[in-house]
Amino acid sequence: LSHLARAQHAAHRSKDALATVQRLLKVDPGHPEGHWLAGRIARELDDRATADRHWREAIASDPGYAPAYVDLAHLYGDAGAHDAARQVLEEGLKFAGDASELHEALGLVWLDLGRPDRAQRAFEQASHGEHARYQVHLNLAAAALQAGDRAAALGALQTYCGLAEGRETDAVKLNAAKAMLRRLQSEGASAR
Predict the structure, then answer these.
(1) Cβ-proximal residues to 128 (8 Å cutoff; 6+ apart), any chain
(2) I need a surface site. Which of 73, 96, 104, 131 has the fewest CB within 10 A?
């Protein structure tokens, strides 16, 4: 049922996905993915309280279930409760310390809290994870620039451009990253 609900949700058939998730949770009330997906559907319907409840139930069922922490943190961050989002992610890292998505989400929260130094460390952690998204390097570059670490920003931009090239990616972001990389490289050359 879990795979069916995910497929229905991916096909934007939220009503069917919700019915499938409800059947799943009736059979297995502690199914973390079922609660996570129910939370996603509730969030899409702008039912924040239900989303919060389901993501917390997913975490209670499986404290290492990273997607629930990430979505719960986004829920809080969207409401401006960045410190609550940080606490959720730090709690998740206690149980799933190698989850790249938790480190990346924490980096974004640190940026929201005005701490690019901590964001940079979180993005660095995320970039080394087994399931790291290549886009994390763009976030790492932004944090490094804000923290005044030009060398790290250059390295992150070079990595991002190398990984993004040839992928179906947002061409605007890739072109902006290339332009920023050229600018930083020319500034470095003129400073010598």
Answers:
(1) none
(2) 131
User: Tokens 């730090």 map to which residue?
Assistant: 90
Q: How far is CA 132 from the centre of its chain?
A: 10
CA 98, 99, 102, 103 torsion-angle sign: positive
Q: What is the pLDDT of residues 70-111, one digit of tens each?
A: 999 999 999 999 999 999 999 999 999 999 999 999 999 999
Q: Say if residue 75 is exposed, middle or buried (CB neighbours under 10 Å; 0-12, 13-18, 19+).
A: buried
Q: Give buried/exposed letters for 78-101 (b at 16+ CB in 10 A, else e).
A: eeeebebbbebbebbbeebeebbb
Residues whose CB is less than 8 angstroms from the CB of residue 181 and which lie 6 or more positions away in sequence, other chains included: 154, 157, 158, 161
Which two tokens mark 7?
A: 């497929």
Q: State the helix-helix crossing angle for 116-127 and 100-112, rounded to 10 degrees.
A: 170
Residue 50: CB atoms within 10 A of its CB come to 15
